[in-house]
Specification:
- With about 325 residues, the protein is an alpha/beta fold.
- The chain has a single domain, classed as 3-Layer(aba) Sandwich (Rossmann fold), CATH 3.40.50.300.
- Helices cover about 45% and strands about 10% of the residues.
- It is built from 18 helices and nine strands.
- The protein is globular, with a radius of gyration of 19 Å.
- The structure holds adenosine-3'-5'-diphosphate.
- Adenosine-3'-5'-diphosphate (A3P) binds near residues 70, 71, 249, 254 and 285.
Length: about 325
């Protein structure tokens, strides 16, 4: 194993990996320099990503998984492309707004496509790039070249619930939701530790090249977020276009839009791993609600999550959703 990663070998980590079926059943490793947990197969590309050449006119969208990434991708792409919904409908989002580390994480995802890092390298500027990597695991030049970076955060309890269902969709996971939340607090799940992901971007939120907003902001007032993102991207947008985007980006429209859904990839992956097909009602665009964590996590786990969050936020001026 390379010096950039240490395999998680605790009994809890082993139990967690053994509870998984599908593409995420791989040794989990803690990556250097960030301490981020990922699948061991990602290790091979860590240096390539750290040394990746950033361009000043790139737009990077960085999130912890399940924080409204896809929603923000579509919004950003439309603002950068004159609100061209016809093209957006025709070209799958993964081609228009690639996910930097997806081939490293899940090679099956890009089986008929170039490696995702090659894809991003070859893109014509201005590039739109998605990543779930924490700041210290992203290309080092993010800090020196200072491209535009948009970071989206989501209430951690809701992100956990959404991530749990994501695991049930892309593979199978034998854990209960509460057990999954415990593994999350123990930093056994990919892209954890959660607050170490959020806080470095929160601390950069006032930098001119950084925009920080939340999934909850989008749910509360999508039009305002669209206007904020447009200003940040230096794009002019009319109120008529804002209204069109609000409609186009609604949960119901996105759920029924094949260009932003991963349902066929999920189906193929589940077949590859010989997992039971899922009912057609189980979709990537699942519920799109705020506050589900409070309804479905046990009282005990919610209390522990609040304590865990308070401990992580000690000394921070963070005021976003938690
Ligand atoms: P739920 O699982 O809570 O429904 P990501 O793109 O980061 O993986 O995030 C996926 C989450 O964003 C899912 O949450 C998904 O339903 C939600 N989402 C995607 N598009 C949305 C939209 N237009 N409105 C509200 N939520 C949306």
């Amino acid at each position: 194993m390379s010096a950039t990663a240490e395999v998680l070998t605790s009994p809890a980590a082993r139990r967690y990996v053994e509870s998984l079926r599908g593409p995420y059943r791989d040794d989990h490793v803690r990556l250097e320099p960030s301490g981020c947990v990922l699948l061991s197969k990602v290790t091979a590309d860590v240096h390539r990503i750290l040394d990746f050449a950033v361009r000043p006119d790139d737009v990077w969208l960085v999130t912890f998984p399940k924080s409204g990434t896809t929603w923000s991708q579509e919004l950003i792409w439309l603002l950068m492309n004159n609100c061209d919904v016809e093209q957006a409908k025709q070209v799958p989002l993964i081609h228009r707004f690639p996910f930097l580390e997806i081939t490293s994480l899940m090679p099956e995802f890009t089986r008929n496509m170039p490696h995702s890092i090659d894809h991003v390298e070859r893109m014509v500027s201005p590039r739109l790039i998605k990543s779930h990597l924490p700041l210290d695991q992203l290309p080092k030049q993010i800090k020196t070249v200072k491209p535009k970076v948009i970071y989206v955060v989501r209430n951690v309890q809701d992100a956990i619930v959404s991530f749990y269902h994501h695991y049930q969709l892309w593979g199978d996971c034998d854990l209960t939701l509460d057990q999954f939340a415990e593994c999350f607090m123990d930093d056994l799940i990919m892209y954890c530790p959660y607050w170490d992901h959020v806080l470095p971007f929160w601390n950069l939120r006032n930098e001119p090249n950084v925009l920080f907003y939340s999934y909850e902001d989008m749910k509360k007032d999508l039009a305002s977020v669209i206007r904020r993102v447009a200003i940040f991207l230096q794009k002019t947008i009319t109120e008529k276009q804002v209204a069109q985007l609000v409609d186009y980006l609604s949960f119901d429209k996105m759920r029924d839009n094949p260009a932003v859904n991963y349902d066929p990839v999920v189906e193929q992956l589940r077949a590859d791993y010989k997992l039971q097909p899922l009912p057609s009602s189980t979709k990537f665009m699942r519920r799109g609600q705020v506050g589900e964590g409070k309804q479905v996590l046990s009282e005990d786990i919610q209390r522990r999550l609040r304590q865990w969050t308070e401990a992580a936020l000690q000394g921070s001026d963070y005021t976003g959703p938690r």
